[in-house]
Amino acid sequence: MPSLPALDIKTNINHSPHVIILGAGASIASTIRNPEKYGRLLPSMQNLVETLDLEPIIKRHGLNYQSQNFEAFYDQLSQSGQHPELLDEIESEISGYFAGLKLPDEATIYDYLVLSLRKKDIIATFNWDPFLAQAFARNQDVVGYERMPKMAYLHGNVAVGVCYNCNTMGWRFNGCTRCNKDFSSSKLLYPVAKKNYTDDSFIKSEWEHLRLHMQKAYMVTVFGYSAPKTDAEARQLLLDEWVNNPVRDLAEIEVLDIMATSNRSALESNWKEFFVRNHYCLFDTFFKSELSSSPRRSCDAFAMATLQQQPWKTNKFPDDLSLKQLQNWVKPLIEEEKVGSFSGKTCEELKVSK
Ligand SMILES: [Zn+2]
Question: Suppose 349 and one of 31, 78, 238, 345 were both cysteines; which one would form an S-S bond, judging by CB atoms 3.0 to 4.6 Å apart?
């Protein structure tokens, strides 16, 4: 049965979640705008072997890498069952490299992203890099840990550690708060055609969080994720939850991808199963998205405009702020959240009326 989102018309607060799904394109967009702190390159599946200089390792095991896509190479190697030591070596090089990446000091797209959402929302990432976790860590004191969006690491993450005995997780270099032992690295899922999302208890619980949010999402943003062939299973899991979401008929989905300008029809056709009628937008940058037009209020503002016919003024993120300025910019919204009722005022208006 279709139903309405959880909009409380007394407080103008919409409790239905906004779900963000991040793929490699999000980290690429972030590092193009603000390069990695030490100038290290963020590898893609196309140039991973070159960027990490894996060719000598592959050669040492008597194989040749003829500049194919890493996904195809890894999938083949893993299916063959030969060279398990080569797989181990490649995996340890990859996790070591990604673990060393660091966000620069400026306000990055990842900072904007974590500050644009509330506790009811979730950012689910397919990326191994630590950028989302680092943005979360450096903004949580400003917002308050309890107000931060949830995160889910769908293919594991180099910044996240797990204690499999206590079923706890945390930052990789902290220890388990229950047994005081060091965390193990979270398992990274590599690009093979048949992934298993249920074998590892950590990965399984990350997917569970995403599914619960997808079942009642009012807005979904897919950012830099193309659902490649090797992710067929992931795509199906997302679609299954989405088509059974009772709010879907009124919900909105936005796809942020550079193809929105360069190859719009291909992008549309890649995601068309997810669209309800014309309830979708395609943008080529984060700064055109609903997250950026109505930070911390995306689902509320959208419901006010479409269901209540009382659109709020846009309260767009200025895109040229320092990290400190950005953190200060969102503060009036956080103050309003503490009061528990939304006015639809912009940050400027909230500051004046204080
Ligand atoms: Zn433990």
Answer: 345
Q: Is the pLDDT of residue 198 over 80?
A: yes
How confident is the model at residue 76, as a pLDDT? 87
Q: Please check the confidence at residue 67 and state whether its pLDDT lies above 80.
A: no
Same domain, 93 and 193: no
Are 207 and 94 within one domain? no
Number of compact structural domains in the chain: 2
Ligand 1 center to 172 CA (angstroms) = 13
CA of 142 to the centre of ligand 1 (A): 29
Show the domain range for 94.
48-99
**Strand ranges in 7-149 using DSSP code E only, listed in sequence order:** 7-8, 13-14, 18-22, 122-125
Give pLDDT, residue 134. 97
Give, in order, the Cα–Cα distances in Å from 321 to each of 12, 28, 105, 134, 328.
28, 20, 12, 18, 10
pLDDT at position 352 over 90: no
Q: What is the CATH number of the domain that holds 224?
A: 3.40.50
Residue 201 CA to ligand 1 center (angstroms) comes to 14
pLDDT digit string (tens) for 242-268?
A: 999 999 999 999 999 999 999 999 999
Q: Tell me: do 255 and 274 sit in the same domain.
A: yes
Q: Ligand 1 centroid vs 161 CA: distance in angstroms?
A: 11
Consecutive H or E run containing 223 = strand 219-223
Same-domain check for residues 113 and 241: yes
Mean pLDDT of all residues belonging to the chain: 94
How far, in Å, from the CA of 68 to the mean position of ligand 1? 41
Residue 72 and residue 193 in one domain: no
Chain centroid to Cα 34, Å, comes to 18
| 229 and 120 fall within a common domain | yes
Determine the Cα–Cα distance for residues 341 and 200; give it in Å rounded to an integer. 41
196 and 234 inside one domain: yes
Ligand 1 centre from 155 Cα, in Å? 22
> How far is Cα of residue 203 from the mean position of the Cα atoms in its chain?
15
Distance 184 CA to ligand 1 centre (A): 10
Q: Assess whether 114 and 260 both reside in one domain.
A: yes
Q: How confident is the model at residue 230 (pLDDT cuts 50, 70, 90)?
A: confident
Cross-strand pairs, 122: 19, 150
Residues measured by CB to lie within 5 Å of ligand 1, the ion: 163, 165-166, 176, 178-179
Compute the distance from residue 96 Cα to the ligand 1 centre, in Å. Answer: 23
